[in-house]
Every structure is written in structure tokens, then in C-alpha cells.
Amino acid sequence: MSSLQDAIRAQPLSGIRRGIEKEGLRVQPSGELALTPHSAALGSALTHPHITTDYSESQIELVTGAHLAIGDCLGELTRIHQFVHRTLAAQGNERVWASSMPCRLPTDETIPLARFGSSNVGRAKSVYRMGLGHRYGRRMQTICGIHYNWSMPGVTSEQYFALIRNFRRHAFVLLYLFGASPALCSCFAQGRPHALQPLGPDALYLPHATSLRMGRLGYQSDAQATLAVSYNGLDGYAQSLHQALTQPYPAYEAVGIRNPGGDYNQLGTSLLQIENEFYGTIRPKRVIRPGERPLHALRERGVEYVEVRLMDLDPFVPVGITAETMRLLDVFLLHCLLSDSPHDTPDEITEIKHNQHLTAARGREPGLWLLRGGRSVPLVEWAAEVLEACTPYAAALDATHEGTAFSAALAGARATLAAPETTPSARILQAMAQQPEGGFVGFAAQCSARARDALLALPWSPQNQAQFEAMAAASWEAQKAIEAADTQSFEDWRLEYMSAQHLG
Q1: What is the Cα–Cα distance from 263 to 207, expressed in whole angstroms?
Q2: How does 280-302 read in b/e, with b if 16+ C-beta sit within 10 Å?
Q3: What is the tally of helices (H) and strands (E) in the chain?
Q4: Considering only CA atoms, which of 167, 130, 132, 123 is closest in space to residue 490?
């Protein structure tokens, strides 16, 4: 580890950058999914740097830049939210759903796929989403979360993979502390086998759940469960993904690339259409060049940052995450980076998945045990060990930022661990119980209205408005330029983009 410590001395902790990608469904005040198109006033979903859509036309995604200061990152996220809410308010009564688990949903085929214009790259994005619908159902894709992108100068690909291995081992701690999806609208589970219990007229839940979003009913795939991805280095990771991206998968071959009418069902018939289809709690990432495949970028230029993907939206907070949570994530990630990180094994990978599902479904259950190295260990005891090991990293970040905020965030996490009733998941169930009908939709709709009102009440200058309007206008011009520059047919473009050579 000494070489890494030397690298940190050369590149101090003040060089850590973090950015946020936050998804949220557009909904009616009643808690129904809004079926209107993404507002043109928000800009082009294809090219806008900060406001796009995720799976559905009704699913807004807000993206910050990479920031050296947590306050700057949260400030930018707040301003993007303000513009979105002001735009929606000017056009009607829609708001952004405050919960990770979706609102009342229409029939699966009625959930609108995101549209990105007529360019080849725009069409590919929509066809990819069509494929996800065929493979996993559209309802699953309406689940929302916050992705926390994190980097530190001087860290090599090998060191980022060491961070990822430790993160996966200890991710249960974050699920316990920040999981905020213990209940869901019963419409979400319709027609699917589950062990959830009814709660009020429209809700299903598990009494000790932390994050149903990260459990068996959430972002899971039986097909992907066959993927044995190792995180012991870039080469092995890239080979695993390469195989999943190039080998035909019988169930998806049966779906076919086009339907009999000639419309596209999916981009390809392999286990993964593209890299983004691979689900995981954390991913190694690199900014890609236009037309470049993410795997090619990783192989060519190495890991640039990690994307933490297991964070639920905090429904009690207008923008879905607090500065304190971001500080705890920084401490946790630094600990993962700087602690010893033995190579993973197939047995450990199986244990990690077991621990994730158990913590998601039963994390607050008194006396719950997880698996560690073939032995059972109490969740709370192991989590306390992990948080204790984070102490020097919180102190180092405090010294860098001349304060005590990182140690305070760690102390808050310890207090939450000792008092499960203070976790977001427990507080949500308490709040739902106080609803007139104890419902999930009523609770989440109330949180969404509160978030909207709080964001609309914040100061907003004409300069802020002009800046976002200019960005929206520029994004439409950029989309037009991409569409005008296309020379290939979509099928030729697809064949080239999906070819194995493009993966590096």
C-alpha cells in the first residue's frame, strides 16, 4: 500500500471529484405516471449536458459535472432541479416522484420508451430500451436511483479494481444505512412471484426491508445471474463483459432483432446488448469519445472513475441526497481504496450476492447474520467493524477540508447502525403508517409535493433562467447537427457499432 500512500501525498485528498446522476419519474399529483413527452423546454434528451431521460420518456435524469467540493456538486444538482420544477410548473401540474420505487404504473406496454430523435445514435438508444422491455419488462426499468461518480487523481485501474472489490464486500453497510425502498406500489409486483406482505390498500412491503430496489424484485436478471464477472483486474473484467456482449443468448435470439413488420425489437441477441445493460452495485467507468464503445474506452485508456449504483433516492430530501450522505460515501470509498483488497473468488462472489439480497429484504431484522469467508457473522457487528475502520479516513478528509464534517458524518452512521428505527427505510414505514390509508402512493406523492414546493420556493435569478434556456437551445442545435451529419442507414450503423472489433 505504500505506493498508494505516496500517490496520495503527491495528489492530496482535495483532488477527489464527485458527480451525481439522479433519476426521477414525472408524475401527476395523484401519483399516476405522466404519459406526456419530455418537455422541449428542458432541451434535447440526446445532447443536453445536465437534463436527459433514462429508460422512459417519463423518467427524467439529472446529471451534474464532476466537482471538487461537495457543496458545489449539491448546489449544481439543486439548480438543475429548480429549472426542471419551474419548467414543469409553467406547463401544468406534473412533479418529480421522490421515491426510488415507481408510482402507479399503467400496463407494461403503455409505459413510454424514451425518444432521442432521428439520428442513428438517437434511434439506437430507443431500440436498446425496446430490448430492455422485451428482456426484463418495462416496469422494472421505471425504478429510479442516484448514481455517485467518484474519482481521485493518481489512482490506477488496478487500484480502482481493488476499491471495487472492497466496495462489493461491504456494500451491505450502505444498504442498511441508506436503503429507502422498504415498500412499493402493489401494481409493481402484479403478475410476479414475491414474498411481500400487504400494507394498506395499495402497498406491499417487508417489515425489516431496507432496499427492495436492490433486492430480488428490483434490478435483477436471471440471465445475468449466469455471468461470473471477476473484479480482479481490468483484463479479466473486460474479457467477462466481452463474452457477454458477443455470445448469442438463446432466449434473446428467440426475440429476434426485428419483428415481422420490420421494427426493431433490440440491438442484438447477446446476453448484454450494450455495456450499460450489465447490472451491478458499482461499475468501473471512463468518459467515452463520440461513437466509442465503453468497453473499448476502458481497455484503451483504463478506469477513470467509479460509478456507485446502489443508492436509493432519499424521499425526505428535495434533491434525493444530503451533503452528510455524500461525505459518508467519500469516507467509505476512500476506505475501500486504501484497505487491503484480496482478489475475489467464485465462492466470495456468491456470498456477496447472498448478503446483498438478505440485507435488502431483511437488513433491519434483529440478530440478522451474513456470510463472511464461509462463516456466519452478525450484520451489525460486521458493519460496526467497517465503520470503525473508516475512522482514519474521515480524519484525513477533515484535515484536508479544515473541519470536522466527515467525522460527524461517520458518527451519524454509527448512531444509525445502533438505532435501526432511525434508518430511512424504518422512517418511511413509520410515515406510511401515519397516512390516512397507510398507502405507499399517498406517502410518496406527499414527499414529491413537498420537494416541489421547497425547490420552487428557493431563490432563482433571471440569470439562472437565461443560462438554462440557452443550454436547452444549444442542445437542440447539437441534436440537429448530429442528425444532419448521418450518412449511413440505421442497419449499417447498428452492424458496425455492435461488431466485436468495436469492443477493443
Answers
A1: 44
A2: bbbbbbbebeeebbbbbbbbeee
A3: 17, 12
A4: 123
Model's pTM, two decimal places? 0.96
Q: From start to end of 242-374, where are the E strands?
A: 282-285, 305-311, 369-372
CA distances from 305 to 66, 152, 316, 466 (A): 10, 8, 29, 32
Q: In sequence order, what are the residues at sequence separation of 6 or more whose Cβ sits closer than 8 angstroms to the Cβ of residue 473? A: 43
Taking the C-alpha atoms of residue 119 and residue 497, their distance in angstroms, rounded to an integer, is 14
486 CB neighbour count, 10 Å cutoff: 15
Retrieve residue 353's grid coordinates: 450476492
| SS3 (DSSP) at 61 | strand
Rounded Cα distance, 96 and 444, in Å: 10
In three-state secondary structure terms, 93 is coil
Q: How far apart are CA 478 and CA 458, in angstroms?
A: 31
Residues in the chain: 504
Distance of CA 126 to the CA centre of its chain: 19
Q: What angle do CA 367, 186, 24 make, to 5 degrees?
A: 90
CA distance 448 to 271: 36
CA 292/CA 207 separation, integer angstroms:
45
Euclidean distance between CA atoms 444 and 225, whole angstroms: 31
Instruction: Name the DSSP class of 415.
Output: H
- Backbone Cα Rg of the chain: 22
* β-bridge mates for residue 21, sequence order: 63, 147
Query: In this structure, what C-alpha cell is assigned to residue 410?
Result: 461517520
User: CATH code at 308?
Assistant: 3.30.590.20
Cα–Cα distance, 392 to 335 (Å, whole number): 9
Domain of residue 450 covers 2-503
**E strands in 343-409:** 369-372, 375-378
- Assess contact for 150 and 329: CB atoms under 8 A: yes
DSSP 37: P
For the chain, how many structural domains are there in total?
1
Decide if 475 contacts 52 (C-beta within 8 A).
Answer: no
Q: Please list the pLDDT of the chain residue by residue as tens digits (504 residues).
A: 445 566 566 568 999 999 999 999 999 999 999 999 999 999 999 999 999 999 999 999 999 999 999 999 999 999 999 999 999 999 999 999 999 999 999 999 999 999 999 999 999 999 999 999 999 999 999 999 999 999 999 999 999 999 999 999 999 999 999 999 999 999 999 888 889 999 988 899 999 999 999 998 876 667 777 787 889 999 999 999 999 999 899 999 999 999 999 999 999 999 999 999 998 899 999 999 988 999 999 999 999 999 999 999 999 999 999 999 999 999 999 999 999 999 999 999 999 999 999 999 999 999 999 999 999 999 999 999 999 999 999 999 999 999 999 999 999 999 999 999 999 999 999 999 988 776 899 999 999 999 999 999 999 999 999 999 999 999 999 999 999 999 999 999 999 999 999 998
